Structure formats: structure tokens, C-alpha cells
Amino acid sequence: MRLIVACFFLISTAWGNTMKDLSNQDKVKVFFEKLTMENMGLVDEFYDSNIHFVDPVGELKGSVKMKKYYENMYQNVKYLRFDFSEFHVSGDTVIGIWKMTLKTDKLNGGEDIVVDGNSVIKFGQDGKAVYHRDYFDMGAFVYENIPVVGYVIRNIKARFKVE
């Protein structure tokens, strides 16, 4: 009986941890590992209600818009994964270097798209992200994976390639 109670305690303690209990680096890692279309509640747990977000697509403010951004991103996605190769932490700011792998029928003939990038995320006093900026090559992400546009961009890049 004691063994059952001990196991239950350990399992409930592990499941009971919230983002608030994690280091900022671990919050970033867990958020991007766990976020799915079915788990959009993580957005409210990770981001401050006044989040300021910037990426090559645009800029937005507020957690309601942030949640909509992720819902739109995940809507037609079959698979989305962020693999972090390293983190740099300075005070309340975390920089994560990542490789994103995305699969959607809408781009690249349904084949995987792999894009390198990084995120700069600053956390506020309440432990939630108040600023998030993503840096990545929009051409590699979208434009090169559209049939006609991709052909043109790949040819332009080839002209500038030095061997």
C-alpha cells in the first residue's frame, strides 16, 4: 500500500509542476516541445497578457493575438517540431537556437521543410514571457517552397553562390 501511495505522490508531483516552477530556459523548451493545436492553453501559461511578439511575418501585441497566431500556424500542419541546439541566458532573457521541422500539404509538395532560426524571449517579474522575437529566413521557410516563386529564388541564390 505504501508503494502505491508513494508512486501516486511521485506521479502527481511530476504532473503537477507548472511553467511557473521551471527555469526560464526550461519554460522555453517545454513550451515549444508541448505546444499543439490541442494544447493551446499553454499560450496563456507561457505568455504575459501584454506579450510583444515580432517575427519576419509581422508584429503583434497581446496574448489573445498570440494564441490566434499559433492557432493559424498549427491549423494546416501535419507535423511541427523545434529542436534546440543551444541556449544562452542573461538575466531574464533567453536566446534559443533552433531548427524547425514543418510538414504541411500546403508547401514543398507535402515534404518536410527545415529552417534554422533563433528566439529571443524576455520574461517579466511574474515569470511569463513579455517579449518574444523570432529570427529566421522567410525565404527558406515559405517562398522557396512555393513552386514558381521557389524556382526563381533558388536560381537567384545560385547566381550569388561562391564555390
Structural commentary:
This protein is of the alpha+beta class and 163 residues long. It contains six helices and six strands; from the N terminus they run H-H-H-E-E-H-E-E-E-E-H-H. A hairpin with a 2-residue loop joins strand 3 and strand 4 (93-104). The longest helix has 15 residues, at 2-16.
SSE order and pairing:
Blueprint: H1 2-16, H2 24-34, H3 41-46, E1 47-55, E2 58-61, H4 63-75, E3 77-90, E4 93-104, E5 113-123, E6 129-136, H5 138-141, H6 147-160
Parallel strand pairs: 1-6
Antiparallel strand pairs: 1-2, 3-4, 4-5, 5-6
Terminal residue distance: 69 Å
> What Rg do the Cα atoms give?
19 Å
Main sheet record = 6 strands, mixed
Low-confidence spans? 3-16
User: What amount of the residues lies in strands?
Assistant: 35-45%
Structural class: alpha+beta
Overall number of strands: 6
The sequence of SSEs as H and E is HHHEEHEEEEHH
Give the overall silhouette: globular
Enumerate the strands of the largest sheet in spatial order, edge to edge or round the barrel. 2-1-6-5-4-3
Helix content: 25-40%
**Number of separate helices:** 6
Summed over residues and divided by their number, the pLDDT gives a mean of 83
